[in-house]
Amino acid sequence: MIKYVIGNWKLNPATLADATALAHAISLASKQASCHIGCCPTFLHFGAVKEILKDSSVWVGAQDVCAFGKMGAFTGDVSATQVVDMGANFTLIGHSERRSYHGETNVVLADKIRHAIDVGLVVVLCIGETKTQYDQGETLAVLDEQLSVLHGLDVPKQQLLIAYEPVWAIGTGLTPTVDEVAITHRHIKANLASQGIDDVGVLYGGSVNDNNAKELATCEVIDGALVGGASLKAESFSLIAQAFS
Ligand code: PGA
């Protein structure tokens, strides 16, 4: 399976000039990597970044889409239809920062997934346990509950990727061991298979950097990486992409 390395820029960078510079650097980096590369700029920078990357192989994705509808009276939201019109290939759904800062539950996430799938986006569904849940040995049960959002949605496997991101590993410099990630990814794949969804890529996210990417990439059940902080530095992102190539 081809591997994926996706940069989640979150609420960065501060200026359009920095966002376009990063897009140019990623365009160059993509020429040295054979994995599938993607990035998720903010909605405000989306159009400019897509314009720079439109002739490259780099996917540009949304960080989120509106749950309530595709058009209409939803102040402050951006819809799946609009991001597709702007050239988006995929969207993140259910990132832990959306779950914690915006209280997103499976009910809301199911609506977002439905809208994204309807308009042809690939959904990168983000799941992961908190530190307390990890310490209490609840990781796999938490993931099962988060994956239950897919029940009854009939998501085509070509439109789905999972990003396993332990909440406690995001932005902290802490990571589970590769063996722990492998156990978790096997469990996620088995869960999906039990829902009739086979051959879906499962990415790891949480403090991936140019030092640990090589070891993660050697693990056969890690199908790529979702990268936050290190995706804002073109050189680090490029090295991570090369590790997964
Ligand atoms: P990080 O973020 O690489 O900065 O830990 C990952 C993510 O939140 O997707």
Distance between the amino and carboxyl termini: 11 Å
Ions, cofactors and other bound molecules: 2-phosphoglycolic acid
* Chain oligomer state: single chain
Low-confidence stretches: none
Strand order of the largest sheet: 1-2-3-4-5-6-7-8
Radius of gyration: 17 Å
Number of helices: 10
Counting DSSP E segments of at least 2 residues, the number of strands comes to 8
Helix/strand/pairing category = alpha/beta
Q: Residue-averaged pLDDT, rounded?
A: 97
Description of the structure:
This protein has 245 residues and is an alpha/beta fold. The chain has helices spanning 16-30, 43-53, 80-85, 96-102, 106-118, 131-135, 139-147, 178-194, 213-217, 234-243; strands at residues 4-8, 36-40, 59-62, 90-93, 122-127, 160-164, 202-205, 224-227. It has an 8-stranded parallel barrel, surrounded by 5 helices. Helix 9 links the parallel strand 7 (202-205) and strand 8 (224-227). The longest helix has 17 residues, at 178-194. The model has no long low-confidence stretch (mean pLDDT 97). The structure holds 2-phosphoglycolic acid. 2-phosphoglycolic acid binds at residues 8, 165, 170-171, 205-208, 226-230.
Give a quick precis of the structure:
Helices cover 40% and strands 15% of the residues. The protein is an alpha/beta fold and 245 residues long.
Question: Would you spell out the secondary-structure blueprint of this structure?
Answer:
Elements: E1 4-8, H1 16-30, E2 36-40, H2 43-53, E3 59-62, H3 80-85, E4 90-93, H4 96-102, H5 106-118, E5 122-127, H6 131-135, H7 139-147, E6 160-164, H8 178-194, E7 202-205, H9 213-217, E8 224-227, H10 234-243
Parallel strand pairs: 1-2, 1-8, 2-3, 3-4, 4-5, 5-6, 6-7, 7-8
Helix pairs in contact: 1-2, 1-10, 7-8
